[in-house]
Amino acid sequence: MSTDRFVSPDDIRSLFAQAMSTMYRTEVPLYGTLVDLVAEINDAVLTAHPALAEQLDRTDERARLDQERHGAIRVGTAEELATLGRLFALMGMYPIGYYDLSVAGVPVHSTAFRPRTAQALARNPFRVFTSLLRLELIENAALREQSAAILAQRRIFTDTALALIAQAEREGGLDEADARRFVIEALETFRWHGDATVSLDTYHALHDAHRLIADVVSFRGPHINHLTPRTLDIDAAQDGMLARGIDAKAVIEGPPPRRCPILLRQTSFKALEETVHFPSGDAGDAGTHTARFGEIEQRGLALTPKGRALYDQLLAQARDSGGAGSTGQDYPTRLAEAFIAFPDDHDTLRREGLGYYRYALTDAGRANPGAVGDLPAEALIAAGLASADPIVYEDFLPVSAAGIFQSNLGGDEQRAYAAHANRDAFEQALGMTVEDEFAIYARLQAESLASLRSR
Ligand code: OOG
Ligand code: NI
What we know:
CATH superfamily: Uncharacterised protein PF07063, DUF1338
Distance between the termini: 31 Å
Shape: globular
Number of helices: 21
Largest sheet: 5 strands, mixed
Bound molecules: 2-oxoadipic acid, nickel (II) ion
Helix content: 40-55%
Strand content: 5-15%
CATH topology: 2,3-Dihydroxybiphenyl 1,2-Dioxygenase, domain 1
Strand order of the largest sheet: 2-3-4-1-5
């Protein structure tokens, strides 16, 4: 049976990412400024560092760089989350990783929907950080019930989107015309609504319980709250934002600047205060809401569990020293000092098993299969017969995500919930299990090692 009549999920994802970017540029013009800034910086970095440009060519990251984005949304019910899971599956995006943000005072738990094979990631790595509101963490029972009742009323997907999802599941895909319709219909779920569904009084009550609850419960849909282009130099991006007078977050989240970038570094501009219409009284009320922002990220080496444990330990050390968390003028210094203990050259990172690498034969290796034989990878690298390039981190960091949430909730609210990780409940709501990110990186590395011998 031929499946040619169906558009590949990778193509649907690319179309969707492009459509989302175009929509958000119109909705939040400052996001367009960030995209332009990042394009300028990336051009300059690639010109100044030909070796990096070659590495990105080898790892298929260069072509995707201009298109690369992540976004984030927050939903209110299990049904919404489960339907999103089905919608993203049509675009080849699957739930990877479980993030408990209650520890950071944000009443949600989350996953990232993203592609997971080397080929799909090379085509377009679009990812959406997706959070589910945890009503059970609201203390006020009446407010909890009111929120649940409001959420039960809303329909965040169009009828056509739902019909196309069901059709694709039944038939195994979407043809070109249906794929285009699906992208247009799916986009509706992520659109901003300037009119709330609750009265201004209700909005204030929700807001007093937690700003994020108001954000999820008061609107017709889970508006995309930011989109993030990927830069090759986040320090330059941060300087560029400040130079343009953009109200950037005070500190860059994640590891300090390094020669060999690891994991993820992020900065953002603070959420905009937007006018919202509330349907109270006869004419309604005007109010404001802060939710939508823009972010820039720099991605580096994906760490193994061993490397990640070291990262978590050093980050905690930097944040705890002086008891000042990530605030305080001296935080960048504390961070840099703590991370002296994290090796910063790829040979050491690789040999100590701290990160994942993609192995490939060099021209010399391809020309000389006899010499390659069964030699271990490290011996091939030493002999110039193979290369090892960092596998890029495709996921998120809970401490950083909490910092991004906090700086964008408007105000400096800090609320503590005890740790409430509940992966089982999240998976049950989603109707799928979330995949382990490390298993995916390990598989990508193993595939590349196998390819050294497949001749
Ligand atoms: C998500 C914040 C997390 C990131 O890049 O860590 C995030 C949100 O505010 O909904 O996007
Ligand atoms: Ni983000």
